[in-house]
Design a protein that fits this description.
By secondary structure, this protein is α+β, with helices and mostly antiparallel strands. It has one domain. The protein has three helices and four strands. The strands form two sheets. A two-stranded antiparallel ribbon has the order 1-2. It has a two-stranded antiparallel ribbon with strand order 3-4. The longest helix has 11 residues. It is globular, with a radius of gyration of 15 Å.
């Protein structure tokens, strides 16, 4: 019973595309996804998936910054500084 509830909740869950910010249904069969850093990322299109794949580490660090786990200048990671 709990497994069925979890599956239906996952189907109804809306996640945000990390590249463009568009809402995406997490459980939809047609949703484009990519597994990176032990996590499944979902995208609105193949173009967003490709862009994320090219800059995946930067996207993960930007997310950590927004969550308050990293410090930066004005909410953005600073690249190229030691």
């Amino acid at each position: 019973m709990a497994a069925q509830r979890k599956a239906s909740e996952e189907l109804d869950a809306v996640v945000i595309d990390p590249v463009c910010g568009a809402p995406v249904l997490a459980g939809d069969r047609e949703t484009v996804s990519l597994r990176h850093a032990g996590r499944t990322w979902r995208f609105c299109s193949q173009a967003c998936r490709g862009r994320f794949a090219r800059e995946a580490e930067r996207a993960v660090l930007d997310e950590a910054l927004r969550a308050g786990r990293l410090f930066g200048l004005r909410g953005r990671a600073r690249w190229g500084t030691a």
